[in-house]
Amino acid sequence: MTIRMTIAAAAMLALCACQQAKQTSPEPKAEASKAAPEGKPGITIAGGRLVMPAVAGNPGAAYFQIDNSAGADVVLAAIAIDGTEKTEIHQTAGDTMSKVDSVEIAPSTSIKFEPGQLHVMAFNLASTIKAGGTTEMTITFADGDKASATLKIEAAGGGMGGMAH
Ligand SMILES: [Cu+2]
């Protein structure tokens, strides 16, 4: 009798522990999917465009605006663009541009990637990247979160100046 009660009590304890664990464990993160663009709470990406190089084989350049209305700093760590082999974040200063490893966006601020300033160089464009089309950009933040946005693909020299490398 005593033994049986102990086992029953242990089983109940185990059940309780299990239910508690279920309640406190965070929701699993959704898998990356092309059908459902990813978003990061408080982060808005607008005006995304990818400008084709004037000379085929040269890198293209991507521009967009990113707003941080989250209550904390977010750090943009990497950018991937469908149909490009790799990207680099660059900052233009005078006649030169240098690679930037990460971009910090303070709370309640926005940062513009634009010609002659901060921009994304996109290397080895696939033949699917054509002016008039669109492609997907996915930003990875330092905390591992991602946000994606559609980029309009524009022909070279869209009135905003070229990108000399
Ligand atoms: Cu550049």
Based on DSSP secondary structure assignment, what is the total number of beta strands? Answer: 10
Give the helix proportion (percent range). 10-25%
Radius of gyration: 23 Å
Distance N terminus to C terminus?
84 Å
Query: What is the oligomeric state here?
Result: single chain
Which ions and ligands are bound to the chains?
copper (II) ion
> Main beta sheet, described?
10 strands, mixed
Task: Give a description of the structure.
This protein has a domain at 43-154: PCu(A)C copper chaperone (Immunoglobulin-like, Sandwich). The model is unreliable at 13-27, 29-34 and 159-165 (pLDDT under 50). The chain has one helix at 2-24, and strands spanning 43-51, 60-68, 74-81, 84-93, 96-100, 103-105, 109-113, 118-125, 134-141, 146-154. Strand 1 and strand 2 (60-68) form a beta hairpin. The protein is mainly beta and 165 residues long. Strands 1, 2, 3, 4, 5, 6, 7, 8, 9 and 10 form a ten-stranded mixed beta sheet that branches. It is globular, with a radius of gyration of 23 Å. Bound molecules: copper (II) ion (CU).
Give a quick precis of the structure.
The chain has 165 residues and is mainly β. The chain has a domain of 112 residues: PCu(A)C copper chaperone (Immunoglobulin-like), CATH 2.60.40.1890.
Q: Which key phrases capture this entry?
A:
binds copper (II) ion, Immunoglobulin-like, ten-stranded mixed β-sheet, 14% helix, mainly beta, 165 residues
List the helices and strands and how they pair.
Layout: H1 2-24, E1 43-51, E2 60-68, E3 74-81, E4 84-93, E5 96-100, E6 103-105, E7 109-113, E8 118-125, E9 134-141, E10 146-154
Parallel strand pairs: 1-10
Antiparallel strand pairs: 1-2, 2-7, 2-8, 3-6, 3-9, 4-5, 4-8, 9-10
Bound molecules: copper (II) ion.
